[in-house]
Amino acid sequence: MGSAISRRGLLIGVGAVASLAACASLPAKADPAEPLPVLGDQFAALERRYDAFIGTWAADLDGGRSVANRADDPFAMCSTFKAYAAGRVLQKDQTGALHLTDAVTIEAVDLVANSPITEPRVGQNMTIGELCEAALQRSDNTAGNWLLRIIGGPSAVTTFARTLGDDRTRLDRWETDLNSAVPGDPRDTSSPRALGAGYQRLLTGDVLDAPRRAQLERWMRGNQTSSLRAGLPAGWTSADKTGGGAYGSTNDVGVVYGPDGRRLLLSIMTRSRTDDPEAHDLRSLVAEVTTLVLPYLSAG
Questions:
Q1: Which own/partner pairs from 31-34 qualify as long-range (CB within 8 Å, at least 24 positions apart)?
Q2: Which residues are 253's β-sheet partners?
Q3: Which of 12, 86, 100, 189 could form a disulfide with 230 if both were Cys (CB 3.0 to 4.6 A apart)?
Q4: How many whole angstroms separate alpha carbon 210 and alpha carbon 145?
Q5: What is the per-residue pLDDT across 21-54, written as a single tens digit (0 to 9) for each?
Q6: Please, which pLDDT band fits residue 55 given cuts at 50, 70 and 90?
């Protein structure tokens, strides 16, 4: 059992439109003489129908095909930061700076909204590993804040992003302030391409050693808040992390795995085009984007 750490010591059912259904019927290997579907018009149609902006960076990790739509535009990160925070925790565990079995005490003063795992544990100890699991699988916000304390605060996520080659991601605030997602506010933002590439390096690269990379993947395969899974065909699964905030901000980023071993990176970041901070979430849109891009990526 690890040592205790004090708080102060750490300062779809989606109905696809006909065009999407047509794309889903593409063969696994496209005839090179047959033109590939043009996705730009379909992204535009989805943006009109949902009155939303769709940022997407998707790639076949074992081939050369990729899809981009507003891939370099800024979007609010929301809870997608939690995969970076957990990755940094695992890196520190790898160097012996901490251990996943180290424990923290959950106090009532720690609690913020959407904390389904930590709230019942007030007055009790939770291990750092349990906090990672809660943050990644249930998007528990109090657990997310604890991970930030453990690694050195929001700026530590920005620093870690740079080590991944991600020059766009920046985290400035804590849960739940970071979800304000005010259009034009540069704080707590990233881009689909930058964040997706960072996730790719965490889940498939050498940032973590094999056991800790496998641990991160297991946690993320257990994600219970996934939006993109509603758009995956039968037999596919994912290791992904969601995020949601004001102005309809709805994200999902991760690696999806086909039954044949195919690995595809999906980084989808969306928000409403309206000026309403209470705009409805866009989870069904994320699923439809998944349905749209998968056949194109799989055709190569």
A1: none
A2: 241, 267
A3: 12
A4: 26
A5: 333 322 233 333 334 457 999 999 999 999 999 9
A6: very high
Helix intervals (H) in the chain: 18-24, 40-50, 81-95, 128-137, 141-151, 154-163, 192-204, 210-221, 283-298
Q: Where are the alpha helices (DSSP H) in 100-258?
A: 128-137, 141-151, 154-163, 192-204, 210-221
Cα 48 to chain center, whole Å? 24
Residue spans of the domains in the chain: they are 52-298
Contact yes or no for 246/181 (Cβ under 8 A): yes
Distances (CA, A) of 195 to 66, 158, 165, 248: 15, 11, 10, 19
* CB-count exposure of residue 92 (10 Å: 0-12, 13-18, 19+): middle
CB atoms < 10 A from the CB of 266, how many?
28
Contacts of 121 (CB under 8 A, 6+ apart): 106
Topology of the domain covering 52-298: Beta-lactamase (3.40.710)
pTM, to two decimals? 0.89
**Average pLDDT rounded to a whole number, residues 204-214:** 98
Residues whose CB falls within 8 Å of the CB of residue 100, separated by 6 or more in sequence, listed in order? 2, 89, 90, 93, 127, 128, 129, 132
